[in-house]
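Weekly puzzle thread! Below is a chain. First person to post its structure in token form gets bragging rights.
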Amino acid sequence: MEQAVFKDYSVIEKLLEGTAIPDMFKVRQIFSREHIEDVAEETTRQLKSGHLEELIKPGMTIAVTGSSRGIANMNIILRETVRFLKDAGALPFIIPAMGSHGGATAEGQKAVLTGYGITEEFCGCPIVSSMDTVCIGTVEDEGKTLPVFIDSHAASADGIVAVNRIKPHSAFRGPFESGITKMLCIGLGKQKGADCMHNDGFKYFKTRIPLFGNYVRTHTNVLFAVAAIENAFDETNKIEVLKNEEIPLKEPELLKYAFSLMPKILLDETDVLIVNEIGKNFSGSGMDPNITGTWSTPYGSGGIKKQRTVVLDLSGESHGNGLGIGQADTTTLRFFNKMDFTETYPNALTSTVFLPVKLPMVLKNDEMAIKAAIKTCNEVDPGNVRIVLIKNSLSMEEIYLSKAYLEQIGGISGLAVESECEPLPFDGKGNLILWNQ
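Winning reply:
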């Protein structure tokens, strides 16, 4: 494929000959690291203190949701939830609750869970993966009658337990974003339910997430939810158990708390943002626009302002899903060759948002991708270009800045300089080796 599509980069190399990459220095961003030391113990403590005894009867079949996100300790949280249910005499099983992810196939969704260590052996219960859904009713919104779908195995179970992380969404703002309520209507809805939710676009998510989610909550036997919140270091900061009726009351406050813990780039703007790697394990959007400012819709805001975005690589944990590459201006041949369109396109076809899967300019290597972004910045002094380099949108403690930031760095709270200015290290193939050694 590489030879067939890209025969000769010599013309482009010549165009970039005069473009220099400035020296960079390492900076440590300081965030709170408060977290739970023993996640298994805390999950069990929260479950036992949640007064759930009257909800669980011996012999009940209970569907427990497994997410496609790279959530810290999710396999442990699921294992302890399953153990709690079994100790109460129930018969729990895990279902992949991830909309159209995993290539929108039963096998692909189970493989995503396996990749996160969520297996039958580890969790101590069956994992039942299917794309079959049932319509449990309809809701009315904007003059439309809309069907509500959920996983058929969850619908036939005696109870449902929703387990998910609560965090800001990457495409819209509202009182319910990524979390329990969204899990109930989109994750649990499989491809068909997710497709129905996304059909009119993210414009309506602010109202339809609670509309659909609360319909599922009140028209099925949702017993309770286990919500996790992470700190800026992708560590579990809080676990909270919510009974069915507590979900709409407490989730908005938990979302605000999650917002307060999010990592960020402690600079308002730059000329070029370089992201070493993106992937579904870092964000549902590949790279979290709450940090990178790479929004795919007009219904969200935040993150660093910049002229150009460079994406260098795709994580192995993303299983070829290159969602988010459309927000980059340049990328590499390495990324292109790792991207699996059959893994990536179902997300766009379901969400109706095509920007995240469009291809940017594909260059031979990291060095060329960075130079192309620098060359095409407007109204920028080529010898003093501002560059921010991050590993990914989860690893935000250590970042690199170009020498143009040296004079202002002392006046920014939470930033500590950790190295001298040095040229970026590239290998013999022109690829960055800061984190790829």
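Puzzle host: Confirmed. Bonus trivia for everyone else. The chain has a mean pLDDT of 92.
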